Amino acid sequence: MSKTIVGFILVDAPHSALNNAGADAGDRTDNIVRVKSIRRGRKVYPYVSGQALRYWWRDTLEKKCEWTLSPIVREKKIAFTHANPIDFDDDDIFGYMRALKAKEGGTVTRISPLKTSPLISVIGQSPTHDFGVMARHEGDPVPYEHEFYSTVLKGIFSLDLDSVGVFYSEEKTGYKNMYPDLEEMAEEKGLKTDEDAKKWTMPYDIRVKRAQNVIEALPYLQGGAKLTSHLTDVSPKFIILAAIDGGNHIFMNIAKEVEGEATIDFEALKEVINEYSDSLLTDIYIGRRKGFLDELDEEIATLSNENPKFKSGNIKETVEKFKTIIPELMEP
What we know:
23% of the residues lie in helices and 33% in strands. The chain is an alpha+beta fold.
């Protein structure tokens, strides 16, 4: 059995420019800052890159959960972390790649147990152009221009619980997590070893804490560009959490646009829950911030009444309740 937490989030971005692409070579001037966006058909969808989302998440874990982050090493044109998932929480959860000398163990990589999508607008739109001017100096004022948008961003993520705090030394890309110095450290710190599988496992309590922290950080997620003039709370305003046997992300297609507004397709949600009922390892936890998509209240209440496996509450309650079932999911 493969145990994976799957999550779906909506982020309200009412006046935002959370991730920018810089200037476009084809623009009429060189001081226009574009937001990142993708096209599908004739529509434009602003987005926040997966890398940016992961940066926000990692930063929040450091500030809110007091994670010890792996120091960044810069050599010539490359940069890497210490590649030490034993001492550094983020090397475990966010993965790494580091090219060591052959005598030191060669190249080591770790596939991140935490996988994220970009945050993509549910609503197709054209970003707004905002004009500004720098005039606090002598001489002519300097005009500039940037884009921003008003939308709701959707995203999915998964956390492979079986991989949290578990490290391998196989000669296989993504699975050669260990090198001689790290193996020596693992032995000194008493990590459980399986020589046949070439596997080291962190203590159960550390594995659980790291997994719980990843989920605990969600209500406090912070970050984004242009916050001095487009201040936005990027913490999720709607969230769904569950654990599943396998790697399928069943919540990917449950958001939709209706008459220019973002909403949840509850029929699609009920359908995937029915289809994957034999794979679900937990109840389905739904959280919503009051004041955001209040019209969903009735649908959520109906869903909970029809199926006791749906648990609903505010964002903080939902995360706290879900957090309590993680230790059982990770029991050896």
